[in-house]
Amino acid sequence: MKIKVKLFAYFRDNRFMEEFRDYPKGTTVGNVVDGLDIDREEVGVLMTNFRHTSFEAELKEDDILAIFPVVGGG
User: Fold this and answer.
1) What letters, b where the CB count within 10 A reaches 16 and e where it falls short, cover 23-50?
2) pTM of the complete model
3) Is residue 73's pLDDT more than 80?
4) Under a CB-based contact definition with an 8 Å cutoff, are residues 55 and 28 in contact?
5) How confident is the model over 1-22, as pLDDT tens digits?
6) In the predicted model, what is the mean pLDDT of residues 57-68?
7) If I label 58, which of 1, 15, 35, 52 is the partner at 20 to 30 A Cα–Cα?
8) Is-contact 71 54, C-beta < 8 A?
9) Cα dist. 22→1, 25, 66 in Å?
10) DSSP string over 33-61
11) φ and ψ of 9, to 5 deg
């Protein structure tokens, strides 16, 4: 199934900004994050189709997954 993956901030470094990628049925958000070698503890916000989601959520064909890092500051 095709999923559009969008990365933000430093997650784009040496990766991509957004890309359509093929994943097998049953792939979870966590599978995608792990497959991109992104440390789960560095993830601040996960969104599927512009709504908050979790690592355990299963993706569907044509979903748009956005992965944002933790943001610090004051």
Assistant:
1) beeebbbeebbeeeebeeeebeebbbee
2) 0.93
3) no
4) yes
5) 999 999 999 999 999 999 999 9
6) 98
7) 15
8) no
9) 5, 10, 16
10) HHHTT--GGGEEEEEETTEE--TTPBP-T
11) 55, -140
Instruction: Name beta bridge partners: 48.
Output: 51, 65
CA dihedral 56, 60, 63, 68 (to 10 degrees): 10
CB burial class (10 A; 0-12, 13-18, 19+) of residue 59? buried
Please, which residues have CB within 8 angstroms of residue 35's CB and are 6 or more apart in sequence?
none
Residue found by looking up tokens 């901030």 in the block: 9
Q: How confident is the model at residue 72 (pLDDT cuts 50, 70, 90)?
A: confident
Q: Is 7 helix (H, G, I), strand (E, B) or coil?
A: strand
Which 3 state secondary structure label does DSSP give 63?
Answer: coil
